[in-house]
Amino acid sequence: MLPKTADIVIIGGGCMGASTAYYLAERGAGKIVLLEREKFLGMGSTGRNAGGVRYQFSTEVNIRLSLFSLDVLAHFEELFGISAGYRPLGYLFLLTTPAEVAAFKANVELQHRVGVPWVRYLEPTEIARLAPLVNLDGVIGGTFCPRDGLADPNSVTQGFAKGARRRGAQIETETTVTGIKTESGRVSAVVTNRGEIATRTVVNCAGPWAAQIGKLVGLDIPIVPVRRQFFTTDALPQVPRDHVFTIEFATSFYFHPEGAGLLVGMSNPDEKPGDTYAIDEEFHLKTLERALYRLPLLEHARVASQLAGLYEVTPDAHPILAPARALPGLYIAAGFSGHGFQHSPATGKVMSELILDGAAKSVDISMLDLERFAEGRLIHEANVV
Ligand SMILES: Cc1cc2nc3c(=O)[nH]c(=O)nc-3n(C[C@H](O)[C@H](O)[C@H](O)COP(=O)(O)OP(=O)(O)OC[C@H]3O[C@@H](n4cnc5c(N)ncnc54)[C@H](O)[C@@H]3O)c2cc1C
User: Fold this and answer.
1) CA dist 260 to 148, 242, 256, 340, Å?
2) Looking at the whole model, is its pTM more than 0.85?
3) Residue 101 to residue 143: CA distance in whole angstroms
4) Which residue is closest in CA terms to ligand 1's atom 15?
5) Which of 52, 82, 326, 371 is the most buried (most CB within 10 A)?
6) Nearest CA to ligand 1 atom 13
């Protein structure tokens, strides 16, 4: 049964909502209720992502979110009794212009300074040894971090949800939030298709739909859904199962082992914001073309499945992790712009600190406020795939 009151209501049962519920429950934050409109958790972007986890970002805050999060993912089984499926295959960025080389060399310096000593700049001969199956025509350098890799979004979401429930949080699926009520200028209740919950605190973890939740209270949240698609292949025994996660930075073409085959994707720079999971066959062909160029042995493989999901894109490719100053009681944890899954552990942790202590201690996220967009304080992330 839906409770009549709650201390904190979380909207959205993806990896962010589940992690936030867990870290709040771990702190004994009172009655916590997580609401998800679908029948199961993780049916939004969380269930449609490529599972990549990496330290290789271009801003200090993203690197710090990775440092916290990948440590949790590596120890997930000890903490949650279920493996996160963390596989440190490494990420290899292939660079094809002098400008990219300069930017990535600067990134490596930043990553070293912030606490990621494992990342290295590679010359083409070293890249050829690491990825001999890849056609390196035009590649003039690269960066490699052996502790980047893969993890399983579904296991992570379920692990957080199980941990949250065990600590008393209530998770209600098939429950759609249709309104947020206010009283004396602050949040007072959440309205759903199954009734109303009186609460003074709401966390918007609605991923690509976070702006719609903002609209319920007349708040402009600059997050747009943008379709991204990938495909998997049938078995490709020629490619080792621990092949490095490879990304051609200029086109964002990437591939990594998946099951007995590969998962292959590329971002369409011309994709307009929109809320569709339909496959764009024309762009699929472009991805195939690029894939055959960079990994010629793909001509021996067949496409096994195609999937589209939604990035939740902000103007500076960083999330909003903050209270909404215009409406006390409303918090936002959304807008991860295509690399959120890997930051879900840190997100739950810092949101719990923000809500319970007034500021985050584990990672300084003070620059990730909502108001930065209106006030022109954007912080650009260059390593968006
Ligand atoms: C193709 C693709 C590849 C990706 N690859 C990677 C990757 O390699 N690595 C990585 O880290 N990230 C990746 N991402 C990004 C990652 O998937 C997202 O950043 C992350 O899943 C966001 O999680 P979330 O919980 O915020 O959103 P979601 O998982 O979308 O969860 C939001 C939930 O809110 C629910 N909801 C919405 N409105 C309401 C409402 N009114 N009432 C109740 N519930 C509501 C939705 O049903 C949904 O379940 C990828 C994304 C895509 C699309």
Assistant:
1) 20, 11, 11, 26
2) yes
3) 9
4) 338
5) 52
6) 339
Strands (E), the chain: 8-11, 32-35, 52-53, 91-95, 120-122, 141-145, 149-150, 170-172, 177-183, 186-192, 195-198, 202-204, 224-233, 245-248, 253-258, 261-266, 303-313, 320-323, 330-334
Phi and psi angles of residue 172, each rounded to the nearest 5 degrees, phi first = -115, 115
Residue 232, both tokens: 């998997």
pLDDT digits (tens, 9 = 90+) for 143-175: 999 999 999 999 999 999 999 999 999 999 999
* Of 379, 217, 358, 256, the residue nearest 314 (C-alpha): 379
| Total length of the chain | 385
What is the distance in A from the centroid of ligand 1 to the CA of 255?
20
Pocket lining for ligand 1, CB < 6 angstroms: 11-17, 35-38, 43-46, 48-52, 176-177, 205-209, 228, 230, 309-312, 334, 336, 338-342
Each residue of 8-26: pLDDT tens digit?
999 999 999 999 999 999 9
Domains of the chain: 8-49+153-223+316-375 (3.50.50.60), 94-149+224-309 (3.30.9.10)
CA dihedral 11, 14, 16, 20 (to 10 degrees): 60
Token representation of residue 198: 């009186």
Pocket test for ligand 1, best of 45, 160, 191 (most atoms within 8 A of CB): 45
How far apart are alpha carbons 230 and 49 in whole angstroms? 9
Strand order in the sheet with 32-35: 170-172, 32-35, 8-11, 202-204, 330-334, 320-323
Only one residue has tokens 């001509």, namely 299
